[in-house]
Amino acid sequence: MGSGLQRAQSFMIVATLLYRASHLTVGVLAVAQHRPRLPLQYAGLAVALAVSALVHGTAWRRGWFERRSVWADLLVTGCVLPLVLCAWGGAREPATIGWAMLLGGSASAVASIALDRLHALAVIGLLVVTHFAGYQAVGASPAVIVGHLNSLVASAAMTWVFKWYLCRQGRLLDEANARALAAEAHKARYAERLEHHRALHDTVLATLTTLAAGGVDANAPEVRERCAREAAYLRRLIQRTADEVHHREIGAALEEAVGSVEGLQLRVTAQYHELPQVPPEAAAAMGDAVREALNNVRRHAGTGHAYLTATGDPDGHGGVVVTVVDRGPGFDPDRYEPGLGLRLSVHDRMAEVGGRASVDTAPGEGVRVELRWPG
């Protein structure tokens, strides 16, 4: 469709073409009516048709009017044709020349939008003089002459106003689209930064927090292996572009999450049952949310053991239900606000892919985190 300005220009090409077509239709009817007496008018009509095809055909191909073809239309159709019909075409009354005079209205309309202001005013003045002389030559009444000249000027003025308004609206639309694209780009950059923050929170920060707390042996092979994996992950994260998508199966995403926390000495009992195919973004979001839920078990439950169950949606709609359960002390949800991990890494991640997360807990009852996709 092009820009708003281009669409406005295309509309003006079509509008002036329809205006010219209405005048040519009158010409065809008028020439056909006087066929026995004025055969030279056929040649004039053929010239008008050819010049009209040149002007509007060129404008349609190029996207706007070409100045040379516009000048040709003004001089041939608007000025020369009426005078030739008066001199040699047998036009002796207003009815036999009126159709040629009408073409001046559509010629002035094109000139007012295709030429600069000074040239457009000069052209309209030339048309007024030529058509005044033509109507005088065939003895038209003052009312006919004034009405026609008024139509010439009004056609040019109205077309210029339409062009000014449509092009202004087109530019405003283009500016609004540019602002919307800039806002979307800013939003995408913010979303990418947020995703990076979540990823760092769920992986590198979780490992560093565990090492700082002294809960694991930093020299243990599994800990060193996890640190090496996360160093490689950091390198990939820095190099990753916003267009990359994690194409992971849901089972592989969950297993990766389990393996990452088992490296920090959390034992996970996992069971999978009839997992369906899900979109890669949903699989990635569930895997990351499970990793953070297991990190919370390791940090807060004090049991060193978690239970993971993943199954296809029992309603049979192709969804997935994943639960992470621990038998720790639990907490009172009315007294504790969810932390950064639950808000960003669990709830928000699931919401962004059309899923949902819920937490069920009470003092002394452990914690149960349920993830559902779709929500």
From TrEMBL:
GO molecular function terms noted in the UniProt entry: protein histidine kinase activity
Enzyme class, UniProt record, top EC level: transferase
Enzyme Commission number(s): 2.7.13.3
Record-linked SUPFAM superfamilies: ATPase domain of HSP90 chaperone/DNA topoisomerase II/histidine kinase
- UniProt key word Transmembrane: yes
What Pfam families is this protein classified in?
Answer: HATPase_c
Q: Which domain of life is it from?
A: Bacteria
Membrane-crossing ranges are 12-32, 38-58, 70-91, 97-115, 120-138, 144-162
- Print the keywords alphabetically: Kinase, Membrane, Transferase, Transmembrane, Transmembrane helix, Two-component regulatory system
InterPro entries per the record?
A: HATPase_C_sf (IPR036890), HATPase_dom (IPR003594), Sensor_HK_TwoCompSys (IPR050482)
Catalytic reaction equation(s): ATP + protein L-histidine = ADP + protein N-phospho-L-histidine
The GO annotation for biological process reads:
phosphorelay signal transduction system
User: Keyword Transmembrane helix on this protein?
Assistant: yes
Q: Which residues form the Histidine kinase/HSP90-like ATPase domain?
A: 288-374
Q: What is this protein called?
A: histidine kinase
Taxonomic lineage: Bacteria, Bacillati, Actinomycetota, Actinomycetes, Streptosporangiales
